[in-house]
Amino acid sequence: MTDGRTVGSARAFELLEPLVQAATVRVHAPSAGYDTSGTGPTWGSGFFIAPGWVLTCAHVVGEGGAAVRLTGREVGITFSSGGNGGTGTVTGRVECVLPERLEERRPGRRALWDLPDLALIRVLAPVSHACAWLTDRSRPRFDEVAYFGCTEDLGTPEITGRTTRLRGTAGNGAAIRLGDDDEIEPGMSGGPVVDLARGEVVGVVKARRHTGGGGLAVSVVQLRTLPMPARGQIGLYRRVMQAHDRHHYDQHLSDLNSRRTWTDVHGELPADTDPHEGRGRLTPGERTTLYGLLAELPPPGSSEVVRGLVEAARGEEPDPHPLAPLSWRDGLGLLHDPPGGTGEAAAMLRYATDVSVADYREPPTPGADEELWDWVRATAERLWRPLRRELGERHERGLAERERRRRASAVRAVRGPVRPAGGLPNGASVLLELWPHGWEDVYDWAVSVLAGPAHPGRLTPVDSGVRVPPRALREALRAPLAEGFRRCDTHEAAALLEVAVDPELFGLAVDEWVMAGGVPLGVQRPVVLRHARGTASPAAAARWARVQAGPLLDERSDCIRGRPRSPAAPWLAGLPDTTVPVHCRAPGHEPTRGALHAVRDAGFGVVVCRRPPADPGVSCAPFHRGLREELVEAGRGEALPLRFQALRGRAYGADPDAYWAAGIALVWDDPARALPEEEPLQGDL
Length: 685
Fold this sequence. Notes:
It contains 17 helices and 23 strands. It has helices at residues 7-23, 58-61, 236-253, 262-268, 284-295, 303-314, 328-333, 344-356, 368-379, 385-415, 470-488, 521-524, 540-549, 569-573, 592-601, 621-634, 640-652; strands spanning 24-28, 42-50, 53-56, 74-80, 87-98, 118-123, 144-151, 158-170, 175-178, 192-195, 200-208, 215-219, 429-437, 440-450, 459-468, 497-501, 527-531, 553-556, 559-560, 563-564, 579-582, 606-610, 664-668. Mean pLDDT is 88; it is low at 272-278, 414-420 and 680-685.
């Protein structure tokens, strides 16, 4: 097994092989009755990533039943039950598959399943088992790796390992390419891919080449795409990773047996496999302890909280392209090899210091944040004296700032919130921009995170594309929008989606797209329209402030008693500043398209339009009557995005009193959330 390997990687394989084999399992049909022999045919492999949790590929749990629903399906798990080579078999239940659409659309026989092609299995009985160590890095490093899985070379299932190199990425980083140094055998799908230099699992074996050696693995970072939880709940990803870190921390502290732990082996890995090791990094024991202490804290309130602390520790904004960091652990993964010669240990200790004084989504276990700070202070003793002083001052400032925020929160609780109930939060939002290609029926698009008032003008790209036909637009935007929501959603509220387009595209039914969870976007979160990038009129800021305060007045802008009209500029200029112009006709057609341009030029930042019914003979009176009542009840403009979300939910739920709101859209050009004025890049010619 040493052919083609360096001396360092051969030694690393020798050290890591027992740990990985102990955590790797065989996945097969569930045992019948009291049979626990696990002798059924092998479907594939998997591996324990936390106590009671097995990670594998979705196509592995889909084996033997193409029409069977994957989530909730029971499977058999045969695993190593101790250090004496024995095995045990237990039943597991599939808790989740990625992507979720695999439940509705399966590939044909022998076809590749859609990325990320992952499944999480929950073991249904308490068993003692080993767990693999997962990477915290957002991107793999292209070094030598080993992959493991179930083979039957001698007619008996056994867990074996092979070595190769990573050869690049595929699927926009969701998959990694395995070299052809050795062959991936049937049954190895779902097994772990281990970075030999750093001793951490970076991928899940997915497929082999039809022509022989090499294949694809799924990046374990794709676990971050697990479905987001309901508001106020802790998501599956955070729960599993918290259990992962606690397990390895407990193993590191335990002296009940003499078996090597992953932390022990990390300390024994050959130094020449990682040229970046040195005094500027945490030791394996320090790193495991830090992960364990972070796992004792409540999770962060949002991904943007983690990114903000990482930026403060690195001294620059982290790479915007990896999947959103969802846990305190993920933030550490963005601090490897920091810029400007800053030591990695120093950056991680700064980050840990800031986490110890952060605002958590719920009160921590008493003393957990203080224990983290005590560890930071003790660990810094072996580093530089100026760093120790810096960390102490950082901690004192953080405590003072947290106390200031708590006092301000207590004052708001007594006096009432600064923003009225039902107003939008001031946090980051997801921005979707669409540009048509003139006479061609295709679109260029970009999805970004708009930082909001806290960082005016900051726009962090998520993804972009060109020349997408309308019928393919929703599918092309499914993954980028999901990533944007992961970055911006908090445990308290779903983030705002802002759709910036020219007025002729205000009829695009983005709020009706079903992307995840079987519910339209406009029901899941507030969705508003923005005018595409450009400078608003000088009157816009003044009108905006007054319409937010209310009381709101409605004014028909493109019709008079159902007949179309074009509003004159002097007439618009004379309307009260608290007016909300209302359009009831198709936004892409005249005179409504011209009316939408005119009201923007007049400085109206809050405007209502709709997609009218297919039958042109249907009266618009119920729409205007219902909207007038809604505006009077809302009273203030700032309540409208969430009230419109509630309206869409009522219409979606078949509330007869909300039928008039079908197709309603809110134009919301908030000056505090200004779009950058740079012209977008044009698509390919």
